[in-house]
Amino acid sequence: MNKQSFVKFAVFLASISSILLLAGCFGSSGSGGSGSGGSNGGEGPTVTTPAPPAREHDTRITEGYYRLVLEDLPFDPIGDPASTDRWWGELDGVGYRIEVPDHWNGALVVYAHGYRGDERELRVDNPEIRPYLIENGYAWAASAYAANHYDVRSGLENSNALALNFTKIAAERGREIEEPVRHYMIGQSMGGHIAGAALEAETLSKANNPLLYDGALSLCGVMGDAEILDYFTAYNLAAMQLGGVPADSFPVADGESRVETFKEALWVDYDADIGALTAEGEKLRAILMNLSGGERPTFNEAFSDPISGRRELDILHGYADNDGTAYGILAQNIVDTRSVDYRFETAPGATRTTAENQFNNLILRVSPSSDANPAQDDGLRWIPRLRGELNAPMITLHTLGDLWVPFSMQQIYAQRVKDQGYADLLVQRAIRAVGHCDFTYEEQVTAFSDLVDWHMENVKPDGDDVLDAATVASPDYGCGFTIDGGDEAFPCP
Does the predicted TM-score (pTM) go above 0.85? Predict the structure, then answer.
């Protein structure tokens, strides 16, 4: 049975299971039982299924908020123009790029780009390791997605649909090729979430375009899925509390003005020196360190960095007024800060000080709606879950100084995968750099090459332990896989 047949069979089994489950439910109240009977001939009460709640994102899609930038689709060759076929266009209205080398090795790499915020223009990115892929015979394909914002569902479905139409597009462009013998995904940032979801069991059973990948590489990925919203909210609530403007409700009223107030209270001069803090500001630094992954190399340098540190703190502060719906991707609040342990004097696991206890008792706690990200009848959840139920090898790379998509995302994911019993399919690597996605070309190539070798030779490569706090705090943590290639790389002791 080939891969596509396997996927169809898996979806068929899922459908049959659902039918049998429904049959069992209907049968339990049918005429064969000892029900109460009555003049209605055994018919139960009529139940009306409520309509799903409306989302702001639905309006964006239906009212044409987004625009595909057609003139952006063409892309230049690398080296000899005749060495690859380069195709671009639209698939069901979604833009794409595909490149196939003349010496194609039969493998297709699907690239998932990162978050574009509220941009209206839909664009395609090339994978950063495109030269390596072409030189080594890999074809690649990348989708613009049907929508921006944090629409992981569209990103995954559109990427898979492109991969499934790969040979058809090639034939339409005059190149007859066989179906790919291997599929890999590389995703960056939000695309890292997409890459993680691509390997999940729930995705295979629920996606409209299911595809069984042979492995995935997640770069600086949002591997804690919606829990990143907990992180954004917890940080801003802590800053407000320390800055003298504590929140008393969620969503927070006047979030932008509160940010300006706490910046003045917690920084000596936020605009002049992002690393210079007041005494209360030092507490915020410690809280952020623990929220973002604990004590580790590069954190303090990342926080104080005049370029990436300022950029990422500004991004965090931009979420002060978020409403827990990922700006309309969900219909209800999913943020949950009830179990957040705020620490600024002790390490997690130790007995909290009186001051920490007082802080934790006073700060606003946010509770989520009962089912903010429900399973959908028409495909994947609005924010696909990363439960840790892997069906193929996964390698992740994450910079230790990332404050936008923090290293704690890797810790959340590692624990989920471990709890599900799939730790043998996960390798995680820490990179000693500040800033979001600050990887060298060599670090990405090494990780992808190791992923392919793992799949082909069935020998698991080395990685870093992300769950042991003492290991993560070691001065040489991340030295195993950081390849010095830029000014932001941190030398090992």
Answer: yes
